[in-house]
Design a protein that fits this description.
InterPro entries: RmlC-like, RmlC-like_jellyroll, RmlC_Cupin_sf. It catalyses: dTDP-4-dehydro-6-deoxy-alpha-D-glucose = dTDP-4-dehydro-beta-L-rhamnose. One of its GO terms (cellular component) is cytosol. GO terms for molecular function: dTDP-4-dehydrorhamnose 3,5-epimerase activity. By secondary structure, this protein is mainly beta. The strands form three sheets. A six-stranded antiparallel beta sheet has the order 1-2-10-7-12-5, with no helix packed on it. Strands 9-8-11-6-13 form a five-stranded antiparallel beta sheet, with no helix packed on it. Strands 3-4 form a two-stranded antiparallel sheet. It is built from two helices and 13 strands; from the N terminus they run E-E-E-E-H-E-E-E-E-E-E-E-E-E-H. The structure holds dTDP-4-keto-6-deoxyglucose (T46). The site of dTDP-4-keto-6-deoxyglucose has 14 residues, from strand 5, strand 6 and strand 11.
Length: about 180
């Protein structure tokens, strides 16, 4: 597998060879040894699949803010588009980070098989670029809805260059706070 750190320290582009033959193809999606060799937090506690019907569906920007105490321990996640194409976004919300509020964007494409690894404290969101887009997640910790927070997709202090106006979004996401309202995390 190939690991390339992005402009946000700790966020990595993940790629691996796709082996094709007359049956189709095979691609390695995760390797505990390689994660350890690169000093990345394992993402083996839970995985999930996000299925999205329509283009311009937006989910995020979600993060578990780093707090004192085990209850609010953050989560690392590996994000991979396994059907269609998504505009993926990572935003550094780690207090004191030299890249605090910086964002990176990536097109994750099921055919290309590229993925993005986000460490604790980095918010994640995406917008589908076509209909029928599925996203596979691997998480470092089980889901804890009660501690997950988020900031609004169109926060001017972050200024993500979304490719389209969102057409489909949850009420929760529509009403997320701006980072300025987001008590220190
Ligand atoms: C994320 C998650 C959700 N759920 C259940 C909870 C709800 O009943 C239902 C939908 O959850 P939610 O609306 O939080 O799903 P998303 O808005 O796609 O949330 C995700 O979207 C952004 C972009 C992320 O990066 C996070 O992984 C995650 O916050 O699935 C689970 O059971 N386990 C999970 O890990």
């Amino acid at each position: 597998m190939r690991f390339e750190e992005t402009a946000i320290p700790g966020v990595f582009d993940i790629d691996s060879d796709i082996f094709t033959d007359e049956r189709g193809s095979f691609q390695r999606a995760y390797c505990a040894d390689e994660w350890r060799d690169h000093g990345l937090e394992p993402v083996e506690a839970q995985s999930g699949i996000s299925r999205n019907r329509a283009p311009a569906t937006l989910r995020g920007l979600h993060v578990i803010p780093e707090h004192e105490g085990p209850e609010h321990e953050g989560e690392a996640k590996l994000v991979r588009c396994i059907r269609g194409r998504i505009f993926d976004v990572a935003v550094d919300l780690r207090p004191g980070s030299a890249t605090y509020l910086a964002h990176i964007t990536r097109e994750l494409d099921a055919d290309r098989g590229n993925a993005l690894y986000l460490p604790r404290g980095v918010a994640h969101g995406f917008m589908t670029l076509q209909s029928e887009c599925d996203v596979l997640y691997q998480f470092s910790r089980p889901h804890r809805a009660n501690v997950e927070r988020g900031v609004r997709w169109d926060d001017p202090d972050i200024a993500v260059p979304w490719p389209m106006q969102p057409e489909v979004m949850s009420e929760r996401d529509r009403n997320l706070p701006l980072v300025a309202q987001f008590d220190s995390i």
